[in-house]
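in:
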């Protein structure tokens, strides 16, 4: 007959075994879902940037020829639930941890599992690299050029990354805020809520603004190389209360800013700061 102490130890071992198995199963499920979601994008040439009338931002011009090698990109934005599992498994700590904790407490609806993940550029990159380590694939954030080429369905002359190339509020993109103003109380939709673009990619216009690999410089389009541009070597700097961060680029517009939701809109964002409207999707870069 087992002693009470031995029984307790046995129960603890079984509990830990089930906990480990459960976590392992969750990670395996995440990995399978994410790897299944990659869409192959055949390389080619296109005119990147604003051909005129697509954006008022001077950093979207001039339109310039870009030629890309083939790559793959995820059809969905990464969800908060999967990002939380990544944090639980790896112990990853965001660069803006104090503000992150405050914002989670103050905005619980923004952090539900089904919505796009929230984090800094470093958090987004860490997630993609973790996925790469799990899969053995060269996974990272897409470059800005890869992102736009995929959003515009291999560089077609369309302003919006929707099924029709047009923006229809509440039909294939987030609803327009009242009176055309930004609605800071809005929430993004769960990934896949609207029809995909012709490549089968969802929410590349008007849900979460998605982090890409590149640093931000306002004049980069004026001297971008044609083949596989990687962005400038350094980014414009932005001071924060505690640290100066180089700016990175986020693409795709935002759910509370309907008219900014074009595929040539670009946001210049301090890389280490935390934003409720920023999300991510990963790419297989080789």
């Amino acid at each position: 007959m087992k002693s009470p102490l031995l029984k307790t130890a046995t129960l603890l071992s079984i509990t830990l075994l089930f906990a480990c198995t459960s976590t392992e199963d969750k990670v395996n499920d995440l990995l399978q879902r994410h790897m299944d979601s990659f869409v192959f994008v055949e390389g080619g040439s296109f005119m990147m940037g604003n051909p005129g009338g697509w954006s008022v931002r001077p950093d979207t011009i001039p339109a310039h020829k870009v030629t890309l090698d083939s790559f793959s990109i995820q059809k969905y934005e990464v969800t908060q639930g999967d990002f939380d599992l990544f944090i639980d498994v790896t112990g990853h700590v965001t660069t803006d941890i104090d503000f992150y904790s405050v914002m989670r407490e103050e905005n619980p609806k923004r952090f539900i599992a089904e919505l796009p993940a929230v984090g800094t550029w470093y958090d987004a990159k860490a997630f993609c690299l973790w996925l790469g380590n799990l899969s053995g694939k060269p996974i990272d954030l897409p470059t800005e050029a890869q992102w736009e080429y995929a959003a515009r369905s291999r560089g077609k002359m369309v302003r919006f990354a929707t099924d029709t190339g047009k923006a229809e509020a509440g039909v294939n993109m987030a609803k327009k805020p009242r009176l055309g103003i930004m609605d800071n109380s809005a929430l993004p939709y769960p990934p896949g809520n609207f029809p995909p673009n012709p490549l089968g990619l969802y929410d590349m216009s008007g849900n979460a603004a998605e982090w890409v690999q590149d640093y931000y410089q306002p004049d980069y389009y004026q001297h971008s190389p044609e083949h596989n541009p990687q962005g400038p070597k350094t980014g414009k700097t932005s001071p924060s209360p505690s640290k100066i961060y180089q700016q990175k680029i986020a693409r795709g517009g935002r759910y509370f800013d309907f008219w900014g939701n074009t595929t040539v809109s670009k946001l210049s964002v301090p890389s280490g700061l935390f934003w409720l409207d920023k999300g991510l999707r990963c790419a297989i870069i080789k």
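note: Residues 1-19 have pLDDT under 50 and may be disordered.
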